[in-house]
Specification:
Layout: H1 3-22, H2 26-46, H3 58-89, H4 91-96, H5 101-132, H6 140-167, H7 175-186, H8 199-205, H9 209-221, H10 237-265, H11 268-282
Length: 283
């Protein structure tokens, strides 16, 4: 077995182990599912609302959008938090010291993060479909579209999340990323159709992957006539594929460069300094 293949195999095993640990630890479960549970509560209160005169339920529109948001937020924030924490406790330094260790480390984080996203999407889809109804789940097209949007969405957001995580040495500062992301969510048509927003807001939202993930999920899970609330009255699959593909290329181009530079700067003294700062902040 080649060294790269061995590192990938070790990383995959690590990722599966981490995913199993995250779903057997009560504190980790609370952290992972607190936000999805809040979203389900919001969907419950939206279940009887409708968008203007279309008769299309706001809850039915919001559920697929929330699934897209879940993929985007976990891809952007989840792996960035892992990286920042592992820099502070020396995990990245140990990975750097192992042949092809950084490659295996990233494989593991991608698997554990993607696996967690998949479980959360399934839980929210099942519970949300029961709460709001109106989803189109009975065709091969639905599941094919859901799979390619989910996979491409993770590829578009995970590398960018890794880049963001490499910027912050202190994991307690990662929360600052959430503010611009939440602002982006507010203008991306997640909780209310983007066609009801000003034109400049619509243009801004279409630059980023959050909008396209929401649109892709809606195209998979809603009946065809629901496209009347979208821009151009169309699901715009080719545009979704293209924009998520562009973000994938950007992320996969930038992330390896940034992560290699980050790994080169890691040393025992830098890890010790971070631990000392963390201990001081704890007191």
């Amino acid at each position: 077995m080649s060294p790269i293949a061995a590192a990938a195999r070790a990383g995959a095993a690590r990722g599966l182990t981490e995913m199993r640990q995250m779903h057997t630890n009560g504190q980790d479960l609370f952290v992972q599912y607190f936000w999805p549970m809040l979203m389900l509560v919001a969907l419950f209160f939206m279940r009887n609302g409708h968008f203007e005169s279309t008769g299309i339920g706001l809850g039915s529109l919001a559920l697929p959008s929330v699934l897209g948001l879940l993929v985007a937020s976990t891809g952007l924030l989840g792996i960035s938090q892992f990286l920042a924490i592992d820099r502070e406790d020396g995990t990245l330094l140990r990975a750097k010291a192992t042949p092809n260790g950084m490659f295996g480390y990233l494989i593991g984080k991608i698997i554990s993060t993607s696996g967690s996203v998949l479980v959360q999407v399934v839980v929210m889809l099942v519970a949300g479909a029961f709460i709001v109804g109106g989803l189109h789940l009975g065709s091969v097209y639905t599941w094919f579209t859901l799979v390619w949007v989910l996979v491409l969405g993770l590829l578009a957001t995970l590398p960018i999340g890794a880049v963001l995580g490499s910027v912050f040495e202190n994991p307690r500062n990662i929360g600052f990323i959430s503010f611009p992301i939440m602002g982006l969510v507010a203008v991306s048509g997640i909780f209310y159709p983007i066609t009801a927003m000003p034109g400049w807001v619509q243009g801004l939202a279409q630059v980023f992957p959050v909008y396209w993930l929401g649109l892709g999920m809606r195209s998979a899970l809603l009946p065809g006539d629901a496209a009347v609330v979208e821009l151009g009255h169309s699901w715009r699959h080719w545009e979704t594929l293209g924009m998520l593909g562009v973000w994938t290329v950007i992320g996969l181009t930038i992330a390896p460069i940034v992560l290699r530079r980050m790994a080169r700067r890691e040393s025992g003294s830098s890890v010790a300094a971070r631990r000392e700062r963390a201990m001081r902040s704890a007191y």
